[in-house]
Amino acid sequence: MIIYFTLKEYAMANTEIEKLAAVMNEFAGAGAPGAIVSVRRGGKSLLRSGFGLASLESGLVNTPSTKMRIGSTTKHLACTLALLLRDQGKLSIDEPVSRWLPELPPSQGRRTLRQFMNHTGGTRDYLDLSLLSNGMVLVPGEAAFDYQCRQHDDNFAAGAQFIYNNGGYRMLSMVIERVLDMPLAQAMSEYLFEPLGMHDTSLWSSDLDPLPGSAATHIARPDGSFGKGIFPSVILGEGGVASTLDDMQRWLAHLLAPTLWPASLSMEMLAPTELNNGYVTPYGFGLIREQWRGVTLVHHAGGVVGGTCQMLAAPEHDIQIVVITNRSDKAAPALAEQLLAALLDETLEPAATPADPALIDSCGGDYYCRASGRHYSIVLQEGVLCLKDFGMPLPLQQGSGDTLHINLLSVIVLEVEALRDAAGKVHAIDVTQQGRRMRCERVAAEDRAALTLAQFAGNWVSTELGADIVIKSEPGSMRIAGLYGRNTYKLEPLLADVCLLSCDDPAVPLAGTLRLSGAAGERRRLVLDTARTRGLNLDEGGAHG
Questions:
Q1: 406 in a domain, yes or no?
Q2: Residues 391 and 370 in one domain
Q3: For residue 48, how far is the Cα from the chain centroid?
Q4: Contact predicate 309/301, CB 8 Å
Q5: 519 and 438 housed in the same domain
Q6: 471 assigned to some structural domain
Q7: Number of independent structural domains in the chain
Q8: How confident is the model at residue 13 (pLDDT cuts 50, 70, 90)?
Q9: Reduced to 3 states, what is the DSSP secondary structure of residue 419?
Q10: What positions does the domain Beta-lactamase-related occupy (predicted)?
């Protein structure tokens, strides 16, 4: 409270409060979902407010005590519990998970909890597989593990890459439940929430179950209206916790200066991860420690259907920020960054320089790497030069010469170098990510225009999806009939043996590639890649029709 400030601190606090209020001005006015926001500095509250409506249906407003989903910010809570159980001798994070999950095929069961926690296991992700084949249809609780057990191929060899993976955290959750012989919700409450006095925090595993005092999530539509956000599956340690501002601030403060566990455990969670090739990612066990404009940050964001979260600390400045939104068009990580910048604006290093939009004239278009099967495109997105990777626009930053950079939270880090021929025309780009360099040749638009999808047309089947697929060449489309629902995609040819896919449902932002595989005369096979699913085989076969 203000009475605890000195006069100098009072004046400074008022200035800071005004800066923070200016950031939140975009939520001024009633009639729309909003956010809950808490900013603390030096242990004192500078901002603790609710903005907008908790529910369009009820008309209730967001308050500091409103409960909201924190999405993937849950992940480090699950990691904390796993490490506590390890220190009690109840589990190992370095043994094959088949010890606790014998149902997994041998190729999947050899992974470790450590690899699941730092996203280097290389297994496929149940959530991506379900969205890919079922769309936003609600699936039963057992579906997640069923998808994991169906997988016999990998995204990559364990430790070779970092690909964000909710499936690994679902399996981590199941191991904890089997070790303790209790539901994860009960385990989190007994081991974490109750000891810390987090009485308004719980694992809320299904949007179909009521949670008193909670906000609804809302999906923004292009016309300015909102739909109801419902997560299409049960959620556990991968993203199921709901909490309040005060509880999350209490948790964050304890994470940085723990009393329930040794400081070494918190430090272990923040330790970076080294890949097999020596590349180091700042992602630890459900947490990221990175340098942002000269400031050391500890954070992890989260997202659900119709909401986002960011939990962030700048320990050297004694700043803690929690932002949770209940609308899909307001990103909590961006808001948290703006709030932090408002407090530290005079001490921050300059922001990276955006790439010159005029480069679209020389570099714009599609690129493909035959060796890796990766497709990239350089586009202008609302005036910003971006590299599109599996449909996600990544803002490019200016480097030296023909080199551009991408850095999102120090986790998505790429270098893009344009390669020119003797006439000075860009004919390829070299994309470097996680220590791997990929030569991507430019695909001429006029060459694409002459291509058809005839060679992709037909009926296909995927045992790992449990799905039948129908592809039509005119117009280019793919329909997947999954275990629980269906999804449809637009197809566009890229090369004679490669086409691009994008989901027709705007609520499922999936994009990727299909590649023809196999020698002439052999049974046809397609290989499907998305951001979180790699090398998924579709074999020629029957379909649901």
A1: yes
A2: yes
A3: 26
A4: yes
A5: no
A6: yes
A7: 2
A8: low
A9: strand
A10: 28-341
CA–CA distance, 217 with 67 (Å, rounded to integer) = 11
**What CATH number did the domain enclosing 405 receive?**
2.40.128.50
Among residues 302, 402, 299, the alpha carbon closest in space to that of 359 is found at 402
> Tokens 């986002």 — which residue?
308
User: Phi-psi bin for 200: left (phi > 0), alpha (psi -120 to 50), beta?
Assistant: alpha
Angle between helices 166-180 and 126-134 (to 10 degrees): 120
| 405 part of a folded domain | yes
Largest CA distance in the chain: 84
Quick check: is 415 in a domain? yes
Quick one: average pLDDT of 396-403? 94
Between CA 111 and CA 113 the distance in angstroms is 7
Same-domain check for residues 378 and 455: no
The verdict on whether omega for the bond into residue 475 sits within 30 degrees of 0, i.e. cis, is: yes
Check whether 542 has a pLDDT greater than 70. Answer: no
Q: Provide the pLDDT confidence category of residue 9 given band limits of 50, 70 and 90.
A: low
Domain identity same for 437 and 506: no
Span 135-154, pLDDT tens digits: 999 999 999 999 999 999 99
Domain boundary residue among 443, 466, 481?
A: 443
Query: pTM of this prediction?
Result: 0.95
Predicted confidence at residue 502, as pLDDT, reads 98
The string of DSSP letters for 343-369 reads HHTTTSPPPPPBPPGGGHHHH-EEEEE
Total residue count of the chain as it appears in this document: 545
Please report which confidence band the pLDDT of residue 545 belongs to, taking 50, 70 and 90 as the band edges. very low
Domain that holds residue 505: 449-540
Which helix (H) or strand (E) segment holds residue 505: the answer is: none
Q: Which of 396, 425, 443 is the last residue of a domain?
A: 443
Instruction: Answer whether residue 3 shows pLDDT above 60.
Output: no
Q: For 157, list phi and psi in degrees, rounded to 5.
A: -65, 145
